[in-house]
Design a protein that fits this description.
By secondary structure, the chain is mainly α. It has 30 helices and eight strands. The structure holds iron/sulfur cluster (2 copies). One iron/sulfur cluster (SF4) binds next to helix 10 and helix 12.
């Protein structure tokens, strides 16, 4: 009886502490800004829970740490049954679970997963103490040690408790099904009943108290993710991966009090705050971040941890102020430290290339990019604070419709070709309304000399394939990607609306572009403004034309070639097969992958408007990637993005002493190998004005 009272007291105490803490954490979420996301596609959501949470798929992207975590996670799911059995045994001698509590296979499963968790623990200790990967730098390591110790204690006590119960003949399972527990029971077999009963009580109590302590402690530690991870995954954005969080700009009703982006912690949405609770501090994002890898202050993990510290520091006062009323709330919010630079230094926010490596690596689906861009939006639109070199690019976007500040008429320069080439006569979409596809040239493809050649070569391939296409020419303006990603949402929306209007006015349905940024923005973000178009990246279209036999690569390449995947293709849009298909269709193209490729590609350093900013700290990202290309001993590094083309070409120029590797767009490689003939009559007709 006293035992039952005591355990009831402990359970009640733990429940009170847990519920109070959980209520506080829930209250803090309520301080965030609204986010109307709700799980809409339940079939997809259930699959996500099954794959990401139960199946641990993202964790298993990394085999050893993934297996380690999966063993512990799956172990705890199974061992929930032993926890119920332990508490039940304190309340009632001979307790067993209803229906399945004497079923041998359950006893075997429990034994197996006790071992699995212990194996997982050994792996965790080996990773943390022997391997010591850099991804843990900055994580709360003592907290992790404490949790590992608690789990070891929980496993030891459940095993000892089962062993003593076997010796007492109380284990509800036939011992033939519990070989591990039975093995541990051997030393206890000869003991008298009294000490065995005492040991049984001791182990059961130790086990129960460790469980209660663990449950309470996790709400105060990074292990809060045990509670929030599944919820965070449930509320994962249903937007396309490459699309940023939409921002409603009501310019007419703006006042001084209008919040643009995230300036203080309460400007973050409740989902962004939930992200902060859910971070496990595993450092996978940090290890994949090109900024961190090249010595910049940005670590997506530390960013999340700093924001979490900021939330917890301000949280209690904010909750108290909210209770007092609107005036107290407004006063408390006015006193909040600025997210930048008080909680996160500005440099951290500007270092991000929005490459998506962090989001992809994160096992609990934290969405770092939205948070970073929201902080940028505040810095740019509310504070007018951004790297000074960005100023001219933004001005050019606003006044000329492109970051280069070129006149609209110059958008046709590329059609003239080089010295040995004939001018191309490409119709404006208004002259060829029945064109199969609109070629979206993009600013880099129109104004950057290196990329003008790519546009020319790609257009030649389309002509050779007999595909009818047209352009917007001077009516095209920048898709807006650099403006949106730097945080200048109002410039982005102006450009997006202008383009959508043009495309709608010509009833454009299908677009092809050689720029992954144009591709991503038009395909994934223009729908936020009513612009829904079928968009295809040029590598995919070329692959299709090769497959259909409309383009035949016949001239042998005779070179070793590799391919650098653009982040906005491979990671944000799962577009990476076409480029390989095209390259490998070229005779004697000796193709090999870079170490980091496909979804794991390494950013060239130009995304997130970084193209227009100086890279002052650490190693330059383009040099890091160039070094990897040089190490591959390839003759040619193929690219599928005008910005990657610029960044890698610059990198090769800088490393000229070490390598004469060539940087070529996939379209250029293909054109060099395609046997040119006259364009088919049908297309010649369509191309003439
Ligand atoms: S998007 Fe890329 S650069 Fe930005 S924080 Fe994530 S990994 Fe780092
Ligand atoms: S943000 Fe995600 S990947 Fe990064 S440390 Fe936290 S849980 Fe790990």
């Amino acid at each position: 009886m006293p035992e039952r009272l005591a355990i009831t007291g402990f359970i009640l105490l733990a429940t009170v502490v847990w519920v109070r803490r959980a209520a506080m954490l829930y209250g803090l979420l309520g301080l965030g800004s609204p986010d109307d996301r709700r799980p809409r596609h339940w079939g997809r959501k259930l699959k996500q829970q099954a794959v990401v949470v139960l199946g641990q798929r993202k964790l298993l992207q990394w085999t050893v740490p993934g297996v380690m975590h999966a063993l512990v996670f799956w172990g705890f799911l199974v061992l929930l049954t032993t926890i119920v059995e332990a508490f039940g045994a304190i309340y009632q001698d001979g307790f067993h679970l209803p229906l399945i509590g004497r079923w041998g296979p359950l006893g075997l499963l429990q034994d197996a997963f006790i071992v699995a968790v212990l194996v997982g623990l050994v792996m965790a200790v080996a990773i943390r103490k022997l391997q010591r990967p850099g991804r843990f730098k900055g994580s709360h390591l003592r907290e992790a040690d404490l949790i590992l110790g608690a789990i070891a204690g929980i496993m030891a006590t459940v095993l000892l408790s089962r062993a003593v119960q076997i010796a007492l003949g109380l284990l509800p399972y036939d011992t033939r099904w519990t070989p591990v527990s039975d093995g541990v029971a051997a030393p206890f077999e000869g003991l008298a009943a009294a000490p065995l009963v005492a040991l049984d009580t001791l182990f059961l109590w130790m086990h129960a108290l460790l469980i209660l302590g663990f449950l309470v402690y996790l709400t105060y530690s990074k292990h809060l993710h045990i509670v929030t991870a599944a919820i965070n995954v449930l509320f994962t954005s249903e937007r396309p991966k490459g699309a940023l969080r939409p921002m409603h700009l009501d310019v007419e009703n703006m006042s001084e009090d209008t919040v643009l982006g995230a300036g203080v912690v309460t400007d973050l949405t409740w989902k962004q705050l939930l992200d902060l609770y859910t971070c496990t501090e595993c450092g996978r994002c940090q290890s994949q971040c090109p900024a961190w890898a090249t010595g910049k202050p940005l670590s997506p993990k530390l960013l999340i941890m700093d924001l979490r510290d900021g939330l917890f520091a301000a949280g209690p006062e904010l909750l108290a102020a909210k209770k007092k009323g609107p005036e107290a709330w407004a006063a408390a919010v006015a006193e909040l430290p600025a997210l930048n630079p008080d909680i996160v230094e500005d440099e951290v926010v500007w270092d991000c290339t929005t490459c998506g490596a962090c989001v992809q690596a994160c096992p609990v689906n934290i969405e770092h990019i939205d948070t970073i861009v929201d902080m940028r939006r505040n810095l740019v639109m509310s504070e007018s604070r951004f790297p000074k070199e960005m100023q001219s690019a933004l001005q050019n976007l606003e006044t000329s419709g492109n970051p280069w500040g070129q006149p609209a008429g110059a958008r046709l320069e590329w059609t003239k070709g080089g010295r040995q080439q004939a001018s191309l006569d490409i119709p404006h979409i208004s002259e060829a309304p029945d064109a199969e596809v609109l070629l979206w040239v993009g600013c880099a493809g129109a104004f950057d000399d290196r990329n003008k050649k790519v546009t020319y070569d790609f257009a030649r391939l389309l002509q050779i394939a007999g595909l009818s296409f047209a352009i917007l020419g001077p009516d095209e303006v920048c898709n807006g990607d650099p403006a949106r990603r730097v945080g200048a949402e109002y410039i982005y929306q102006m450009l997006a609306e202008q383009n959508i209007e043009q495309l709608h006015s010509h009833e454009v349905k299908k677009i092809v572009t050689a720029c992954p940024h144009c591709f991503n923005t038009i395909a994934n973000e223009y729908p936020q403004f009513g612009g829904v178009f079928e968009v295809v990246h040029h590598t995919e279209l070329l692959a299709q034309l090769v497959r259909e036999g409309r383009l035949r690569a016949s001239r042998p390449m005779g070179k070793k070639v590799t391919y650098h995947d653009p982040c906005y293709n491979a990671r944000h849009n799962d577009v990476w097969k076409g480029a390989r298909e095209v390259i490998t269709s070229i005779p004697e193209a000796d193709y090999g992958e870079l170490h980091r490729h496909g979804h794991s590609t390494f950013c060239c350093g130009a995304g997130g408007a970084r193209m227009w900013m100086e890279e002052r700290m650490g190693k330059r990202m383009n040099i890091e990637r160039t070094d990897e290309a040089i190490a591959s001993a390839s003759d040619t590094v193929a690219v599928g993005c005008p910005f990657c083309n610029i960044m890698l070409s610059d990198g090769i120029t800088e490393r000229h002493a070490d390598s004469d590797i060539a940087v070529r767009d996939v379209a250029q490689l293909l054109l060099e190998s395609v046997e040119e003939g006259d364009p088919p009559a049908q297309s010649a007709e369509k191309f003439s004005k």
